[in-house]
Design goal:
The protein is an alpha+beta fold. It folds into 4 domains: 7-146, Galactose-binding domain-like (Jelly Rolls, Sandwich), CATH 2.60.120; 160-251, Immunoglobulins (Immunoglobulin-like), CATH 2.60.40.10; 264-465 and 505-515, TIM Barrel, CATH 3.20.20.80; 566-634, Immunoglobulins (Immunoglobulin-like). The radius of gyration is 26 Å and the shape is globular. The relative contact order is 0.10.
Length: 647
């Protein structure tokens, strides 16, 4: 594939932003006006309409080409005007949309985008534990394509649909192509499909109509983080033996299934899904992040050793799904049908689900479509909500019969609730041991559910505890927001999951702290602090390392409590996390002790005035310095906010 038939022209710089009071300033994209809103207690969190304008010169194109204007994400609704005339409205803040502007192009054009994240009853999300950023926060570009081209007008898709299967050692890549040509044969056209290996060598090639099955003897399977092998599928729209349009995508040949007793299987082998959830926003940037931010997120998720990601609670940027394909992350993808069913928003749930599946169908990383999250919180419109879920389940099966659906249930949604029976598999957001006392209740819930519904696959879609790097305690307890309690909580949960291997997936809530405008707790308003890493991605909390000890094969030792510098009492507990099976601890050069085991190693240290701690395992070391003090530091204690939770 030559790769030069289609062209793009970015439209990212020199936009005029018109804010809520009519003030104007020049901005470059990506951009959100809510980058810091809500983080002062919510007083300055603006939800409404702001405007972006830009004078745009017509791109170079021929009479045999068409020009599309393409947006990768405008939150939450967009009204697009071209030279004063409305050419598009779009009501999904997380998906790609585009429109053909060829016939309205002038030499100079005024592009106006009205971005609206205001409160309404029609567009999801409206109630949830995260900030609803407004703005044009992903890429905008012209897409110049041939007059005869692969379809660009169906829910933001790219015109090809790839489904893989495995028969013995042979992989089969089923491809369906869609074009704007009504009848290929009558037009004297055909489609050539070509499958390339990761070195660019042709594996299989077929010519014909809009469908083909490409066989790959001794197929190299996409095998998660162990071996995320990708082929490239190229499709060329042919006329007179020449390609008039071309599209391509990566594809991975794999099989998977979920067993209610044994969990998730990839390519016929047990592959327990143990991973994290991700929100896309960063401190000071909001959701207007760059590809570099996405790549840093992936780097950190890979470091902790996760093999799966729940991409919550909306469609993420296409580049991040590409990264998941590349690095072998199994993905739970979902729409923001969350917290409260809105009868006027039914059509929006279908629309967002269509865009999610159509735009992301070809990604081998995705194994399940999430229908909703904590939808029973409000308790209103029960009959209509259940009917909507049945309709979404049916829609998912029509759009993609190859993947199961799932549902993330609210903690207070009891196991007998009818909504929990609709999706193919199910999971719960449970914070037992955080919002309610009793870590042991997690064991009770898992055992009870598996006993009551032995044929129903169960997962943990969310679990976690707030942990702030500036808060510490020698006696950590539920609700104190300390780094120590968060680590203690996660130590328990990891052991709990080992006791219940039938869980098809588990997802830490959350990989990163994220903005949640309705919260005011822990002394930092507008934030959810359940991340294993801080909002700015600069501090890996101690709990990050207990997961690394369980999941990662990269040898390391981590000495916890580095930020807990000043301690009272005669003795203190020192914890070391490591994926080695023997750890020694030294204080001021003297051996405290050597312990064998796995993951978490706890030592009792007699405090001196100044304590230079060193953890060792072979050549691996980590150090910290702590001091004995007579009085507990008041800054280590949580400052209670106006509310402990967002609801």
């Amino acid at each position: 594939m030559q790769g030069n038939i289609r062209r793009t022209q970015k439209l990212m710089d020199n936009w005029t932003f018109i804010g809520r009071t009519g003030e104007k300033c020049q901005v470059n994209l990506p951009h959100t006006w809510n980058a810091a809103d809500g983080q002062d207690g919510g007083n300055d969190y603006y939800r409404g309409t702001c405007v972006y304008e830009k004078t745009v010169a017509a791109p170079q194109f021929s009479a045999d080409e068409r020009v599309y204007l393409q947006f990768r994400g405008v939150n939450a609704s967009a009204r697009v005007l071209w030279n004063g005339k409305e050419i598009c409205t779009h009501h999904n803040g997380y998906a790609t949309f585009r429109m053909d502007v060829t016939d309205v192009l002038q030499d100079e054009n005024l592009l106006r985008v009205e971005a609206d994240n205001s409160v309404n009853q029609k567009v999801y999300p409206q109630k949830a534990d995260f900030t609803f950023y407004g703005g044009i926060y992903r890429e905008v570009e012209f897409l110049i394509v041939p007059k005869e081209h692969f379809d660009l007008d169906y829910y933001g898709g790219n015109g090809i649909r790839v489904t893989t299967e495995v028969k013995g050692s042979t992989g089969i890549v089923h491809v369906t192509a869609y074009t704007n040509v009504k009848n290929l044969a009558e037009a004297g056209m055909s489609i050539r499909f070509c499958l390339l290996d990761d070195e660019g060598k042709v594996v299989c090639e077929k010519n014909g109509g809009g469908e083909a099955a490409l066989e790959v003897p001794e197929a190299h399977l996409w095998n998660g983080i162990k071996d995320p092998y990708l082929y490239t599928l190229e499709a060329s729209l042919m006329k007179n033996d020449e390609a008039v349009d071309e599209v391509s995508c990566k594809c991975g040949i794999r099989t998977f299934f979920i067993d209610p007793d044994k969990g998730f299987f990839l390519n016929g082998k047990s592959y327990p899904l143990r991973g994290v959830s991700r929100h896309q926003d960063w401190k000071g940037i909001g959701n207007a992040i760059s590809y570099e931010h996405m790549e840093r997120d992936m780097e950190l998720i890979r470091e902790v050793g996760a093999n799966t990601i729940r991409l919550a609670h909306y469609q993420h940027d296409g580049h991040f799904y590409d990264l998941c394909d590349k690095y072998g992350m199994v993905v739970w993808a979902e729409i923001p049908y969350i917290s409260a069913h809105m009868p006027e928003g039914r059509e929006n749930t279908f629309f967002q689900m269509r865009e999610l599946i159509v735009q992301n169908y070809n990604h081998p990383c995705i194994v399940t479509w999430g229908i909703s999250n904590e939808i029973t919180i409000s308790g209103k419109h029960r009959a209509d909500m259940l009917d909507n879920h049945h309709a979404l389940q049916k829609l998912c099966k029509e759009l993609d019969p190859t993947r199961p659906t799932t549902l993330a249930c609210y903690a207070m949604c009891h196991p007998f609730h009818p909504v929990t029976k609709i999706s193919d598999v199910v999971a719960w957001n449970l914070y037992l041991g955080w919002y309610v006392p009793g870590l042991f209740l997690n064991d009770w819930f898992m055992k009870f559910y598996h006993w009551k519904y032995p044929k129903r696959a169960l997962g943990y879609s969310e679990y976690g505890a707030e942990g702030m790097p500036n808060l510490h305690s020698a006696h950590p307890r539920r609700g104190d927001h300390t780094e120590e309690y968060q680590a203690k909580y996660h130590e328990y949960m990891l052991e709990c999951f080992r006791r219940h291997p039938f869980l098809w997936s588990t997802y830490v809530w959350n990989m990163f702290d994220f903005a949640a405008d309705a919260r005011d707790q822990g002394g930092e308003p507008g934030m959810n602090h359940k991340g294993l890493i801080t909002f700015d991605r600069k501090i890996k909390k101690d709990s990050f390392y207990i997961y690394k000890a369980w999941w990662s094969e990269e040898p390391f030792v981590h000495l916890c409590g580095k930020r807990y510098e000043y301690r009272t009492g005669r003795t203190t507990e020192v914890t070391v996390y490591s994926n080695r099976n023997e750890v020694s601890l030294y204080n001021n050069g003297r051996l405290v002790g050597t312990k064998t085991g796995e993951h978490a190693f706890h030592f009792k240290v007699t405090l001196e005035a100044e304590n230079h701690l060193e953890a060792k395992s072979g050549t691996l070391t980590d150090t910290a310095v702590v001091y004995k003090t007579a009085q507990a530091r008041p800054e280590y204690k949580v400052t209670k906010g106006k509310s402990q939770n967002w609801v």
